[in-house]
């Protein structure tokens, strides 16, 4: 008989990770994982700071909205010992993610809903609002599902998973929200 793990990330937590998303500049989280909003023009500078920090990032993860050209520039700038992850969406989420992007890019259109960033954490944190972004650390499957449903109920437009939350976590979110929201993962 197999036992289903209640955690949704590797143990111990993944290597020092720095997440960059296109949004209001500033660091939202610095808790073993750094989550930072940047302008597209500031991505390479933010990457440089992350890999040259006192506790340097060993993995950079980019938001699913980052253009491929930017991701390629980041990859070219990284030292050999730093990994790059780019958040992408499963086929079932593509239409929803495209609709979110179209709404995000249309200044005259309706707001697409907040970006929700959920990241692997030893201890789960409450869902918090920061400049159009909902963010929470999750340590268990149950907390991941709960935060995803809460984000959906709060009007989130999409969910992105970081810090070691991969395909299994994406499936947890998909099931918990009944495919009502696109979910991306690295």
Name its key features.
186 residues, six-stranded mixed beta sheet, five-stranded mixed beta sheet, 27% strand
Can you give a write-up of this model?
The strands form two sheets. Strands 6-11-10-7-9-8 form a six-stranded mixed beta sheet. Strands 2-3-1-4-5 form a five-stranded mixed beta sheet, with helices on one face. The protein has one domain. The N terminus is likely disordered. It is 29% helix and 27% strand. Helix 4 packs across helix 5. The protein is globular, with a radius of gyration of 16 Å. It contains five helices and eleven strands, in the order E-E-E-H-E-H-E-E-H-E-E-E-H-E-H-E. Helix 2 links the parallel strand 4 and strand 5. It is of the alpha/beta class and 186 residues long.
Q: Concise description?
A:
The chain has helices spanning 43-51, 68-77, 94-105, 141-153, 167-176, and strands spanning 17-22, 26-30, 33-38, 59-62, 83-86, 88-89, 115-120, 128-130, 133-138, 158-162, 183-185. With 186 residues, it is of the alpha/beta class.
């Amino acid at each position: 008989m197999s036992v289903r793990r209640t955690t949704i990330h590797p143990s111990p937590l993944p290597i020092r990770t720095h997440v960059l998303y296109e949004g209001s500049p500033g660091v939202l989280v610095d808790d073993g994982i750094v989550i930072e909003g940047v302008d597209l023009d500031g991505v390479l500078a933010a990457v440089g700071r992350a890999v040259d920090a006192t506790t340097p990032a060993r993995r950079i993860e980019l938001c699913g909205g980052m253009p491929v050209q930017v991701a390629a520039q980041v990859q070219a700038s990284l030292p050999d010992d730093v990994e790059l992850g780019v958040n992408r969406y499963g086929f079932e989420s593509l239409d929803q993610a495209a609709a979110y992007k179209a709404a995000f890019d249309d200044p005259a259109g309706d707001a697409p809903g907040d970006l929700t960033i959920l990241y692997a954490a030893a201890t789960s944190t409450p869902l918090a609002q920061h400049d159009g972004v909902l963010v929470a650390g999750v340590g268990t499957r149950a907390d991941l599902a709960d935060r995803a449903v809460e984000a959906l109920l709060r009007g989130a437009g999409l969910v992105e998973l970081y810090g070691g939350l991969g395909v299994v976590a994406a499936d947890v979110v998909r099931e918990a929200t009944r495919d009502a929201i696109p979910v991306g993962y690295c």
